[in-house]
Task: structure prediction
Amino acid sequence: MAKHMTDSHRRFLQSLMCCGIIEGSKARALHRHCCEVHRVHYPHEGLDDFIRVINTHLQPMFMQIRKGMSEEDGVQYYALVNITETDVTRMASDYSDTELELFRKAMDLIVDSETGTASSTEILNLADRLQPKKMKKKETEQVLQRLVQDKWLYEDGEYTLSTRCIMEMEPYIQNIYQDLVKVCNICRNIAIQGQMCENPECGIKMHIPCVARYFKGRTDPRCPSCNEFWPHEIPDLSCPSPQAPSPGQAMAAKENTTQDTAPSRSKRLRK
Result:
């Protein structure tokens, strides 16, 4: 029998709905914050069980909190995803047909590339070939900014699929790009970015973070599948990424704002 949702579960879900996706460390901090605020027992290693309760109650709404990993640095994430519509059309309420066509073509470029990335120039060059109508370069730049802001694309010099996009659209990606997308030999999740074995009879692919963990401390790195020498540079992911405000802090700030503006309806902000 499923456990009941408590106010601590509801607070966690509400915060995740605002963020869409959060780092694992921030999810654990948020879990503790929600338990402390509502004065319920906080199990230090109980986040997955806590989320499992929420997912049981989200199931009738075809929603789910999923756990995934960033292809860039191996950081763990939790995201609230829609499990019924796993293709690009689920974005139709936020984007026009032409904008969705741009996103599809950008995905084509990214998935078909050796690096799992696409340059802004490559994507901007698509503007003249969009259907049902062409887009100006300036419009294309603005749509790309929105896609990054909405966490469908990630941009750091070049564009790639964001962690949220891969987590939410994995079935779609596997179906549409089944001949192009490989599964990481270590974690068994799809790998858009990564390193490949250069043995033509092998050709396995591994995420950069999986490469770093698997070959850590090895002086003679060899492919885990064919045992050929691994010719790529072994990355060092020991440097921590910059810290952003935690969801608990963001939630507290939002609550303070709500309390300050509560006396006047005219001052309330729309989400």
